[in-house]
Design brief:
TIM Barrel; 42% helix; eight-stranded parallel beta sheet; three-stranded antiparallel beta sheet
Amino acid sequence: MANKITELFGIRYPIIQAGMVWCSGWRLASAVANAGGLGIIGAGSMYPEVLRTHIKKCKDATHNAFAVNVPLLYPNIQEIMQIIVEEGVQIVFTSAGNPAIWTSTLKSQGITVVHVVANTKFALKAEAAGADAVVAEGFEAGGHNGREETTTMCLVPMVRNAVNIPVIAAGGIGSGGAILAAMALGADGVQVGSAFAVSEESSAHPRFKNKVLQAAEGDTKLSLKKLVPVRLLKNEFADAIAEAEAEGADAQTLEKILGRARAKMGMFEGDIEQGELEIGQISAMLKEIKPAGEILKNLWQEFLTEKERIAGMKF
């Protein structure tokens, strides 16, 4: 399939693997790239030199395009960007910050830039800053999220109508039917997180993956809106946050409960009760651990099947 996204990134399928903290290392990114999608290394959980190592290993593991995701509010941002330039990364996804700060610098180095947004205001800012595309990430998504709680089905058409650059839908994309729905709403491609978070190549701890596979409807909740909103899988830590929020805790109190390295504790080290477990609402749909390439190809086959089914409907 050739469209704006496959042409922009030089990939076979308009499916992007999200750059998730503690999940998206070089193994996952290269596996997705080799299967024809766009794999992304998640720099948000990496020290600069660790990121450099992952970029080098990814280049060795695939000859196809891959990207790096950089949360702009994270520390060491200048060093991270320098490494990206030095290592010749061709595609960067930025998130959690002002797109105007780094977009022009990256583009001056010939890098394709995509910015993740949760509303039309920031989609317009990203376009004005020179971004080549935007990811419109709805309320269903795991990890950091928008305070507006706008769902993907509402957000994608609003962003599509607001900007002229390609739009990538994210949040709740876990099936071929969801891909078809996103494209019907105006998306040019999709970004998939949770399904790849529990793939064989994900660097997440096996206990975290198994916890996700056990999730039922309603087992995730958007939390910490007074800090940085994040969708969490229910556990003892999430319950503590929910209790504090119900009592009207301020940002400082929530930050104290959160502490340091909570996501690493949960997703990478496998403390499934006291750790921060970031995952999307589609966790309730995930039932087994599969290779990333198989996940991608199944998604695409499901998309083609649903597309044919819809085309054959009589009205």
